[in-house]
Amino acid sequence: MAHFGKDLDDFKGSRCIRINSAEQTEQFTVYVITVNCGSHTWTVKHRYSEFYDLHEKLTASYKLDKSLLPPKKLFGNQSESFVKKRQRELEIYLQTIVLYLAQHVPTCLAYFLDFDKYEIHGITQSMAEDLYNRGETLLYSKEPYEATTLQLYSLTERLKLPEPTCESGDVKKDLGHILDFITRCKHLKIVCEKEPVGTSNILMNKVPYDLTLFKSLQTLTVSID
């Protein structure tokens, strides 16, 4: 699984973000976003109001034109012609901000696109924050630390990248929290599922990972569902 925005010289928002469909309910429309990251892909669903909230957060921290996001429409926003037009406008919006922010994806955008579930940086940052909060408790417990093969693969690949351990700027998400934990971890349970992960085409039983840094390991179990 290539990490997002790896080849910036050849990076295009139109390749990695598409909104190919929309789902309508009685009260609102949900836009189905397809994210392509290397050879893997997944889908995320969001309402216009969630796009609006994202845009508010981004414009507060980055030099983004507020007019990039198509405006709200109070009436007639459920017609087929409007939904198709809005779908295309939101696609262009996402492609534009992703291209602009690809080198350093903000946390709010990463969560919006479910990077914490499917993308190397998002997964390892989520692991780091979890271990920052409960790592010491886990180390003094006899219960095994549970990690999926996707998490272990993401960690293996992240360690190969010539990047700072805390590229997000949030100390809780520093890779060092994972490294400190795994070198002292005594009990590990690896969880693997046969089905694709979530809405993605990622297969847990097909991804390689390295356990070399688990230097203190005493017990290892593998669970395949």
Automatic annotation (TrEMBL):
InterPro entries: PX_dom (IPR001683), PX_dom_sf (IPR036871). PROSITE patterns: PX. Residues 9-119 form the PX domain. It holds the Pfam family PX. It comes from the Eukaryota. GO terms for molecular function: phosphatidylinositol binding. This is Nischarin. It comes from Elysia marginata.
